[in-house]
Write a structure and sequence with these properties.
With 274 residues, the chain is of the alpha/beta class. It has a single domain, classed as Spore Coat Polysaccharide Biosynthesis Protein SpsA, Chain A, CATH 3.90.550.10. 32% of the residues lie in helices and 18% in strands. The protein is built from ten helices and twelve strands. It has an eight-stranded mixed β-sheet with strand order 3-2-1-4-10-6-11-8, sandwiched between helices. A two-stranded antiparallel ribbon has the order 5-12. Strand 2, helix 4 and strand 3 form a beta-alpha-beta unit. The longest helix has 12 residues. It is globular.
């Protein structure tokens, strides 16, 4: 987190903590016909309660919010998080520890549902979900993301290093090599990812730390377009103290994403989609 983001982070955290848990838990109708799905790690269990509060406080409610955690955390849930479970929010436990948990288990259990993913170290504005869903109504077969990068290539045809993939500035657009970036929120309609999306032996081998790359490859294989939303809004607000352990250190700065994307590119012969 940048120092200039601290006042906004502290203010939003204070506002969210002041919301009544019972009111947040109460089911609101009509709810959007979708599920919000996310995951977390041990060091963020207290902080993710703020993320969940921001999801429960959306202007338009989701039908369900599911947090997927490793089985080893079943008896380590802090009070701040446990008290949020209710009609809408539930915690489910699985054996995986990889970031792909945010989507794959919900895909398996609810294959006919629209699923929206988000990150566990951010607080989302009240209109965040509604903005994604409005674009879904316009493009019902597209994956919609508030934040994207464009995959770029060397003259020889190999993908450029990940840090050279530019962040997309334009809105309401698509491109075959547009990749959704999970932190901003991503909406997945049913049947828009290749069947291999649930193949844990493959994603644990090819992209063990890079779920965004895995889901991009699966959308390419399924012939599904990725679109940047027409109203991305302001970026989500980081939660103070959650950035000490981050995949960004190895995936972006350490070129882990470059290595994992090139492994995907070779395994699936993604060159043919150019």
């Amino acid at each position: 987190m940048k120092l200039k983001q601290l006042p906004g982070s502290l203010w939003m955290a204070h506002r969210l903590k002041g919301l009544d848990s019972l009111a947040l838990n109460r089911r609101r109708d009509p709810a959007l016909p979708l599920i919000i799905s996310l995951t977390s790690i041990p060091s963020r269990l207290k902080a993710v309660a703020l993320t969940v509060r921001s999801l429960l406080a959306q202007d338009v409610a989701a039908q369900k919010i599911i947090l997927w955690l490793n089985e080893g955390l079943r008896h380590r849930i802090p009070r701040e998080l446990a008290e949020l479970e209710g009609d809408t929010f539930t915690i489910n436990y699985v054996d995986l520890t990889c970031p792909h948990r945010k989507l794959i288990h919900t895909l398996a259990q609810y294959p006919d549902k629209v699923i929206v993913t988000c990150d566990d170290d951010l607080m989302y504005s009240p209109d965040w979900l509604h903005r994604l869903y409005k674009d879904h109504l316009r493009y019902p077969r597209a994956i919609i993301a508030h934040e994207c990068r464009t995959i770029e290539f060397e003259p020889c045809g190999l993908p450029k290093p990940y840090h050279q993939w530019p962040t997309v500035e334009g809105v309401d657009l698509t491109h075959p090599w547009l990749m959704s970036v999970g932190y901003g929120g991503v909406l997945y309609p049913p049947d828009t990812l290749h069947a291999d999306v649930l193949a844990r032996d493959l994603f644990l081998t090819l992209t063990p730390r890079a779920d965004d790359l895995w889901f991009k490859a699966m959308s390419l294989m399924a012939g599904t377009e990725v679109r940047r939303s027409s109203a991305p809004g302001c970026k989500p607000i980081p939660i103070w103290g959650t950035q000490r352990i981050s995949l960004k250190r190895t995936n972006v700065r350490g070129e882990g994403n470059t290595e994992q994307w090139r492994a995907l590119y070779a395994h699936y012969d993604l060159q043919r989609f150019r």
